[in-house]
Structures are given as C-alpha cells and as structure tokens.
C-alpha cells in the first residue's frame, strides 16, 4: 500500500491572495484485489458499507493450481470432526537468481508438495470425487495445526480449502 500527500492552491477573488491547503496522507487501494476481496467488496457494497476487512494489515490467502498426488483420504479426528486431506503437487517456477550453480547432468523436476485439508461438507464431497493426477485449483488459507505425536507435541502447515475445483472448469465447491 502506498501513501501520498497532495497540495492544492486556491485563489479567492475578493482578496486576490493564494492560500495553500495540505491534505492528509491518502492510502492508495491495492492495485489488484483478489477474488475473495472482490467478493467481500460486493457483499459490503450490498450492505451499504465502504470499508474492507477488519482494519488489520495482514492477509492470509492461498491460491494453488496443481496435480493431485493421490486420491483424497477421509478420516475422523479424536475430536469427532471429519476431514478430508489431499496433496497437491505444484511445479516451481524456474529460479534464475540462485547463488548455487546448477549441477550438470539430467535436470530434476522441482516441485512443491502441499498438504490441503477440507473441513466443510462441500469441499469434502468435492475432494472425495477427485482422482489421482487430476489438475485441481484450491483457494483457502495457510494454517498451522498442532497435534500430539509419539515424540511429543508436533505441528504442521497445511492449506485449509474454502474452494476446491477441477482445473478443467468443474463445479465450484465451497463459499
């Protein structure tokens, strides 16, 4: 977000003197709002509000498009909640600014494997219909989940899916 300060000069016809007025810093809007922000703007505009968000400086939005590594797995947590987990494999962009020189020989595919968890009924249903190697799109938020393991307390980062769909234009699941 950028800020700017503007100065304006106005002349009054009765005195002929110029007066200067300094306005307070104005925040420029984000140049490209995300789809979630656009939806939020539409909902707030419909409700008659012009402010966006809770006023905090942060944003936790994740958008992925990649190949499903294996079929999704449904399981029940000790709390009784049912979730569906899946892994999305995303190819990394070619990094031209690495310090290390590439190793000669056959090139390895460089990918990221990202765990995705589906909590809502709609995203769980969609995830269970997907098959391995299908290309999917995921929208959601990055979460850090804590759980007890054999060696004590552990944590894991995963994407909590709010929207899940086939990349080929399949039906939208979630909000």
Explain how this protein is built:
With 175 residues, this protein is mainly beta. It has a domain of 95 residues: OB fold (Dihydrolipoamide Acetyltransferase, E2P) (Beta Barrel). Helices cover 13% and strands 43% of the residues. The chain has 2 helices and 11 strands; from the N terminus they run E-E-E-E-H-E-E-E-E-H-E-E-E. The strands form 3 sheets. A 5-stranded mixed beta barrel has the order 5-7-8-10-9. A two-stranded antiparallel sheet has the order 1-4. The chain is globular and about 50 Å long. The N terminus is likely disordered. This is Single-stranded DNA-binding protein. InterPro entries: NA-bd_OB-fold, Primosome_PriB/ssb. It comes from Terrabacter lapilli. Keywords: DNA-binding. Pfam families: SSB (PF00436).
Descriptive labels:
two-stranded antiparallel sheet, Single-stranded DNA-binding protein, Primosome_PriB/ssb, mainly beta, OB fold (Dihydrolipoamide Acetyltransferase, E2P), 13% helix, DNA-binding, NA-bd_OB-fold
Poorly predicted regions: 1-52
Strand order of the largest sheet: 5-7-8-10-9
Helical/strand content category:
mainly beta
The description of the largest β-sheet is: 5 strands, mixed, barrel
Mean pLDDT across the residues is 74
Q: Separation of termini?
A: 27 Å
Radius of gyration: 24 Å
Number of helices: 2
CATH fold-type name of the domain at 63-92 and 110-174? OB fold (Dihydrolipoamide Acetyltransferase, E2P)
- So what's the overall shape? globular
Keywords: DNA-binding
InterPro entries: NA-bd_OB-fold, Primosome_PriB/ssb
Protein name: Single-stranded DNA-binding protein
Biased composition (Low complexity): 1-15
């Amino acid at each position: 977000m950028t800020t700017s300060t503007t100065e304006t000069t106005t002349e009054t016809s009765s005195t002929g003197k110029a007066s200067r007025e300094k306005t307070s810093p104005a925040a420029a809007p984000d140049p490209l709002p995300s789809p979630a922000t656009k939806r939020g703007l539409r909902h707030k505009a419909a409700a008659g509000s012009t402010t966006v968000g809770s006023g905090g400086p942060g944003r936790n939005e994740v958008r992925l498009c990649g190949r499903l590594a294996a079929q999704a797995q449904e399981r029940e947590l000790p709390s009784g909640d049912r979730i569906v987990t899946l892994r999305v494999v995303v190819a990394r962009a070619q990094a031209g600014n690495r310090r290390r020189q590439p190793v000669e020989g056959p090139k390895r595919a460089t990918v990221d494997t990202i765990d995705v968890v589906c909590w809502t009924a709609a995203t769980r249903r969609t995830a269970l219909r997907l098959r391995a190697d299908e290309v999917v799109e995921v929208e959601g938020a990055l979460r850090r989940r804590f759980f007890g393991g054999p060696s004590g307390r552990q944590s894991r980062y995963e994407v909590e899916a709010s929207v899940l769909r086939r990349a080929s234009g399949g039906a939208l699941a979630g909000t």
